[in-house]
């Protein structure tokens, strides 16, 4: 591993200044992804800024939002009363991710910024546009069993890897903002605009500017607390990344769906939200037939590679199952 | 406070001497500076502290406070095994996939291979060596023996540290729950059913873990 300078700021201002002073620096919080990447030589910062001592752990309710500090641990968020009561879909998604040990280390901010688990991204002997821009994509003609089926409609993707987070799928379905500190003060990004689709710069996963620091996320109160489900399909029953994941949330009254949210994990370069499906569900009575119809409608825009065509049926079936559970239909 | 310190490892001691030399030269350079700057530079437990070569930390391992000088690249796992001689904590995959390196940090289970030792400044670490009281085994260790919860034994320290945490967290009420919350600990021999039985029994007995 390349030697690095180790810095430990005590305030957000100090941390951001350190990052501005060291252009090759990276922040480190839980380290569960970054240390892995550093050991393999995929990332080699010359400076590590350990942000664990910044006061960013708080989980609180302000006005109509649950504000979760970027350093709150995944396990603490998943069992916090504010989250289980007001944002149970988020708690469900968090518990579907990683293991007891990793959830005790991984932070909310780090979860947002984790890199893909594409095996070619991890294999430094192989070309990879995300790791080494311009070198080519090994997954395109390789074993692309775990890769994306949804892409930016207007551009040929230079990377077909998928985003690995479960938490981010739930946050995509909900109304979330990301609070960011930078050299010029604080700004807020809607969650849907935080991650990038794979365009011509697949090395960039998000729209964070260099040196910016995620300080919190804010999740809007909603009427999905009764009807929600996070369904994760994977190769083993636990402790594996999603092949396909569905976050489904419904607001129902008088036998009808008034508001619907459907977001998918494991199918695109970022968590994928189904805007069209949500419109189609609104105002209708929930039924398996309706869910099947909307799921298959959306699948028409999916594009599979040699080894991941199974994901098209799997995604449709997972969507139907998740929506049925959320609606309480057996 | 120095009499609390237990820094007997010859490696760490020599590292400390090198650190002292560097710091002495640094102080010589600062000799014209006001006294309070010098004082700040010497505050013992106030990190950061590291250039790219050595960083100074203090942490508690199995109840004993240590002051150490470490390469910032050293993981907590390597510090425990290579520097402290605590080889009970195992290196399985070294990439956070197997759970063999599980320890408790400030009472919570964590993977020692996925954190740098320098980040543990000020924290309390418990390893498998700190689980028993001398010859008196921990109740879960006894239960592993009764239920034959291991074969080759390589994953066992991690399984035990994770199993104790699983009971303390309140996630050991059913076999399904134990399987889910123990999924970060792999066992290639396949002792899973016996591990689950051992954890459930200790939980059921209601003994303090």
CATH class category name of the largest domain in chain B? Alpha Beta
Quick one: overall form of chain A? globular
Radius of gyration of chain A, taken over Cα atoms and rounded to an integer in Å: 20 Å
Greatest interface (CB-CB under 8 A), with counts per chain: A-B, 30 and 39 residues
CATH topology of the largest domain in chain B: Ubiquitin-like (UB roll)
Distance between the termini of chain A: 53 Å
Could you name the CATH homologous superfamily of the largest domain in chain B?
A: Beta-grasp domain
Known CATH architecture of the largest domain in chain B: Roll
Strand portion of chain B, in percent? 5-15%
* Helix-strand makeup class of chain A: alpha+beta
Question: Which segments of chain A are poorly predicted (pLDDT under 50) over 5 or more consecutive residues?
Answer: none
Count of individual helical segments of chain A: 12
Structural class by SSE content of chain B: alpha+beta
Keywords (chain A): FAD, Flavoprotein
Organism (chain A): Dyadobacter beijingensis
Pfam family, one (chain A): FAD_binding_5
Protein name (chain A): Oxidoreductase
């Amino acid at each position: 591993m390349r030697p690095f300078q180790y810095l430990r700021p005590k305030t957000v201002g100090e941390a951001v200044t350190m990052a501005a002073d060291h252009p090759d620096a990276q922040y480190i919080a839980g380290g569960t992804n970054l240390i892995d990447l550093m050991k393999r030589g995929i990332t080699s910062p010359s400076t590590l800024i350990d942000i664990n001592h910044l006061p960013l752990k708080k989980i609180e309710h302000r006005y109509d939002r649950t504000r979760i500090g970027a350093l709150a641990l995944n396990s603490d968020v998943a069992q916090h009363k504010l989250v289980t009561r007001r944002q149970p879909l988020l708690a469900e998604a968090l518990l579907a991710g990683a293991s007891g040990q990793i959830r005790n280390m991984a932070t909310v901010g780090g979860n947002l910024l984790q890199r893909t688990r594409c095996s070619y991204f991890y294999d430094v002997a192989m070309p990879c546009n995300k790791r080494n821009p311009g070198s080519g994509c090994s997954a395109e003609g390789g074993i692309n069993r775990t890769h994306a089926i949804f892409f930016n409609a207007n551009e040929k993707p230079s990377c077909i890897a998928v985003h690995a987070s479960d938490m981010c799928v739930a946050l995509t379905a909900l109304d979330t903002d990301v609070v960011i500190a930078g050299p010029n003060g604080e700004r807020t990004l809607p969650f849907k605009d935080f991650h990038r689709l794979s365009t011509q710069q697949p090395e960039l996963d998000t729209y964070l500017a260099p040196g910016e620091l995620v300080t919190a996320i804010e999740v809007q109160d909603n009427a999905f607390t009764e009807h929600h489900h996070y369904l994760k399909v994977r190769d083993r029953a636990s402790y594996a990344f999603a092949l396909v994941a569905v976050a489904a949330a419904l607001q129902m009254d008088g036998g009808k769906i008034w508001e619907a949210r459907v977001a998918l994990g494991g199918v695109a370069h970022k968590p994928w939200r189904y805007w069209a499906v949500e419109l189609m569900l609104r105002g209708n009575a929930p039924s398996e037939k309706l869910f099947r119809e909307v799921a298959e409608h959306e699948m028409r825009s999916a594009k599979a590679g040699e080894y991941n065509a199974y994901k098209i049926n799997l995604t449709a079936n997972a969507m139907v199952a998740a929506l049925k559970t959320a609606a309480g239909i057996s | 406070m120095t009499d609390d310190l237990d820094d007997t490892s010859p490696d760490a001691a020599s590292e400390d001497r090198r650190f002292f030399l560097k710091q002495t030269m640094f102080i010589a350079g600062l000799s014209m500076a006001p006294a309070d700057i010098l004082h700040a530079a010497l505050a013992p437990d106030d990190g950061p502290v590291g250039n790219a070569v050595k960083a100074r930390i203090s942490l508690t391992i199995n109840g004993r406070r240590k002051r150490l000088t470490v390469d910032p690249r050293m993981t907590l796992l390597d510090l425990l095994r290579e520097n402290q001689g605590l080889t009970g904590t195992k290196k399985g995959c070294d990439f956070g996939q197997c759970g063999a390196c599980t320890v408790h940090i400030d009472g919570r289970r964590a993977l020692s291979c996925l954190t740098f030792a320098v980040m543990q400044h000020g924290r309390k670490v418990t390893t498998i060596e700190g689980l028993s009281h001398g010859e008196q085994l921990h109740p879960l260790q006894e239960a592993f023996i009764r239920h034959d919860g291991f074969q080759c034994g390589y994953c066992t320290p991690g399984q035990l540290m994770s199993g104790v945490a699983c009971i303390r967290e309140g996630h050991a009420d059913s076999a399904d729950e134990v399987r889910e919350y123990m999924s970060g600990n792999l066992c290639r021999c396949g002792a899973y059913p016996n591990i689950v039985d051992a954890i459930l029994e200790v939980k059921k007995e209601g003994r303090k873990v």
